[in-house]
TrEMBL record:
CDD domains: ENDO3c. Its cofactor is [4Fe-4S] cluster. Its EC number is 4.2.99.18. GO terms for biological process: base-excision repair, AP site formation. SUPFAM superfamilies: DNA-glycosylase (SSF48150). PANTHER family: A/G-SPECIFIC ADENINE GLYCOSYLASE/ENDONUCLEASE III, ENDONUCLEASE III. This is Endonuclease III. Belongs to the Nth/MutY family. Binds 1 [4Fe-4S] cluster. DNA repair enzyme that has both DNA N-glycosylase activity and AP-lyase activity. The DNA N-glycosylase activity releases various damaged pyrimidines from DNA by cleaving the N-glycosidic bond, leaving an AP (apurinic/apyrimidinic) site. The AP-lyase activity cleaves the phosphodiester bond 3' to the AP site by a beta-elimination, leaving a 3'-terminal unsaturated sugar and a product with a terminal 5'-phosphate.
Amino acid sequence: MSSLQMRKKAVRILDKLYQLYTDAHCALRYDSPFQLLVATILSAQCTDVQVNKVTLGLFAKYPSVQDLAEADLYVLEGDIRSTGFYRNKAKSLLGCAQTLISQYNGQVPQTLSELVRLPGVGRKTANVVLGNVFGIPGMVVDTHVKRLSRRFAWTDQQDPVKIERDLCQLLPERHWVQASHLLIFHGRQLCKAPIPLCSQCPLLKECPQRGVDRAN
């Protein structure tokens, strides 16, 4: 299959996903770029539902970047314990807030290169923030996006950075932000790991797997 044919097929799949998930969006709750940054850091190895429960109280307790930058590390660990890996996450949140105060006047930067220099922030977190609050296109590669993009034969890579590169080359830039949401929604609802619900999937005819059980 040529590159052009692959792109056309990928866009057909996206079109169907748009029809299936008309309300696909970022499930994390936030009112500011900083709140989304915090919530996304907490979402590593944790469900969005649980993160939203934790941030409800967390954002009330630390309403500003300055408030979080001045938090006691051990108290913060307790505040976020239920999200898992709370010690590392607490250090990241504290370091992130302190760096924003010292280097960015308390504002979340709007470039990938600056965001990934913040403690606890990788490309996935940076792209979540850039796409959802600043409207800057980026492909978010989480576990669902990784699994579905491999099942759709959009990539054969395992490394998230290489998958991100392949998806950005394959999909038109205008779809990057929403494509991540669509793949995440579909991954949660039907294209599950390890066994996808292929018999219920409207994309079955387009899918190279056609019911083959693969976890990745």
